[in-house]
Amino acid sequence: MAPSQCLNDTYTYTHTSAGQAMFRMIAYTDNRSLSLVDVMGYSSLAFRINIHAETVDIAGPYASFNWGDVFKRGMMNLGFNCRAIGAPNFTPPSPEELQEALRFTQNCIDHGVPVMAWDLFVPEFGVIYGYDDQQQQLTCLDTAQDGNLPYVKLGRGRIGELFLMGIVDCFEVDETCAWRDALEMILEHAFEHQPRHDQEPYRNGLAGYEAWMQALRSQSVEVVGNAYNALVVGDARMYAAEFLTRLADRWRNGSPLQREVAPNAQAAATHYREVARHLSGLRASFPFPQGGTPNDPATARTAIELLRQAGVAEASGIEQLQAMHQRLSREDSHVT
Amino acid sequence: MDNMLQQPIEPTHEQASEAQLAAIRDDALVELAKTGDHSAFGELVRRHRARACHWAQRLTHDPYAAEDIVQDALVRAFLHMGDLMDNQRFMPWLRRIVSNQAYMKLRRGGPYGKELPFTSYAPAMDRSRDMHRPLTGETWASIDSVLDQLCHSIADAHKPGCDPVSVVLRKETMAGIRELLHCLTKRERAIFESYFFGQLSPAEIAALFQTSTSNVYNHISTAKRKVQQERIKVQVSMYLKTRRASGLPLAKVLPRPPY
Q1: Confidence of residue A90 (pLDDT cuts 50, 70, 90)
Q2: Which residues have a Cβ under 8 Å from the Cβ of B95 and sit 6 or more positions away?
Q3: Average pLDDT for residues B14-43, to the nearest whole number?
Q4: What are phi and psi of B46, to 5 degrees?
């Protein structure tokens, strides 16, 4: 895959901590030239949204999907086979699960690559990049802290559940195939509702915008969760726009197939830039973590209008991505 | 509790005569007993004592131990009549209390300490298939499941003809649990054992320890957490021992991630 990282790249930090953690792992592999923009795009994380239709719950961005499956699939688009341990199930690991997690973590670090992990110091994704058996401590970095975590605390953070993912091996990927597979993930997320066992009213993809507006209309929004979702989704869409811009730039001079779909990528980039612009208005009204006053009727009206426009722009972006996907799916990878 | 054992249950002048009581159905007697009517409870005891002894004997295989168990169970039943929601369910409820008492006696050894009387060795007790499940490594997945299985296998502990592997595993598990319980305070340990080994309800434990039910819940959850933590510490140190033995590195820290 042609790396798109530029020198002095300003896109080196994202509020989607799962993408940041993947990027951090990748930096230790032979594919270290992959940019965070690539990671966010090919993993589909730049295109995700999941909103609780009543509260805009803070858990939204990582609720309603199988972490292991989605993250592994995203990493495969980037040329990595990964292994995941654990799941977001509100259950701390058993002694045996903890032992297996430690064994896997230490093995990855012995091979020179950190491991992505959930809820190390806060309920976000971070990486474990060291261990010390004598101190029985892991060296970890997440959004809150760079420090040591006792072995026994792994999977016993604020939430009390274990999730780890580590790179098992890497392989060469064809950029066109990788983007086609990523598009599949993005379109599935945009249109297919992810059912939940607990009936909580989460809505993902395009329906997420309507759910968000509904929550604001009913003035039942949880202030911090609302601000967090604005932060994460707004930031993600900036990456989506940047990813598509860079893809269009590369593909304009690429294979015939790539040249054919490059205008779709450029058009989608414009739509996603607009989504990001509307969401940055939302972020300004609801700064994280203070969160502003989303349940104030006048503020809510403004926010609803921003979300309406963001939703319209995203739907247009998705149309372009659908067109791209249809075209790429018609071709076998060898044609590229 | 002990005082209660010695106090005969005497009817008061306000309470019904023996003849009247004999004509009353069980559920009505239960209703009366719930109001604190000693004679109504006495009538229930008269009717069902023999069956209660029979249950206890089947569990202990010892008529003397069974007597003690029934006596304790009846006192417990009288004290907790108020907890019985459905008057029709008096017999199953009493049976559960008898079983709990029997298991607790067997666990604590009753009059025989850790030894069971010879009569207990045969014939094999009729028990559910769960009790024959060996305690394998994977049952450690949850301390609750381990404890649950232990509760079921307590009375089974010395059963002849039992698969030797499962006997060894059970012994190891019991030893493991005892080891782990050192992390608890004396009171936490007593409540923990009453709950998991004695299979008493938090309300029953609260009465035993003269405290509130909510306090018992607190103690149980603290104790469970501590035991689980202790179990994890043991697992981690065993794992590190095998890691050292395999000559794997003791420590490694990669350069801090740049972003």
Answers
A1: confident
A2: B52, B55
A3: 77
A4: -60, -40
Scanning A262-321 for CB atoms below 8 A from B yields none
Q: Nearest by CB to B229, which of A12, A139, A152?
A: A152
pTM equals 0.70
CA angle A113, A114, A118 (to 5 degrees): 150
For chain B, the structural domain boundaries read: 1-113
B residues 131-190 lying closer than 8 A (beta carbon) to A? 137-138, 140-142
Count of Cβ atoms closer than 10 Å to residue B93 Cβ = 19
| Cβ atoms < 10 Å from Cβ of A333 | 13
Q: What are φ and ψ of residue A170, in 5° steps?
A: -130, 160
Cβ atoms of residues A219 and A300 within 8 Å: yes
Residues making up chain B, counted from first to last: 259
- CATH number belonging to the domain at B1-113, selected among 1.10.1740.10, 3.30.450.40, 3.40.50.1100, 3.90.950.20: 1.10.1740.10
pLDDT tens by residue, B101-135? 777 776 654 433 333 333 232 232 233 333 333 33
DSSP-derived 3-state class of residue B168: helix
Instruction: Give A147 to chain B, closest Cα distance, Å.
Output: 10
Look at residue A327 in the predicted model and tell me its pLDDT: 96
Q: In B, residues 73-132, which contact A (CB 8 Å cutoff)?
A: none
Is residue B99's pLDDT more than 90? no
Which among A13, A94, A99, A145 is the top mutation candidate for probing chain B, defined by the most B β-carbons within 10 Å of its own β-carbon?
A94
What percentage of chain B's residues is helix, strand, coil (to nearest 5)? 70, 0, 30
Considering only CA atoms, give the Rg of chain A: 20
- From the CB of residue A101, how many other CB atoms can be counted at a distance below 10 Å? 23
- On whether any CB of chain A is under 8 Å from the CB of B247, the answer is no
Our measurement of the distance from residue B24's CA atom to the centroid of its chain's CA atoms, rounded to an integer in Å, reads 33
Q: Which two tokens stand for residue A35?
A: 């940019």
Residue A162 φ/ψ, nearest 5 degrees = -115, 130
Cβ atoms B187, B219 nearer than 8 A: yes
Q: Are A86 and A102 in contact (CB under 8 A)?
A: no
Cα A316 to chain centroid, rounded: 21
Question: Which structure tokens are listed for A332?
Answer: 């076998």
Could you give the 3-state DSSP secondary structure of residue A131?
strand
ipTM: 0.90
Q: Under a CB-based contact definition with an 8 Å cutoff, are residues A176 and A258 in contact?
A: yes
Is the separation of the CB atoms in A68 and A165 below 8 Å?
yes
Query: Measured between CA atoms, how close is A103 to chain B, in angstroms?
Result: 9
Q: Which residues contact A252 (CB under 8 A, 6 or more apart)?
A: A259, A262
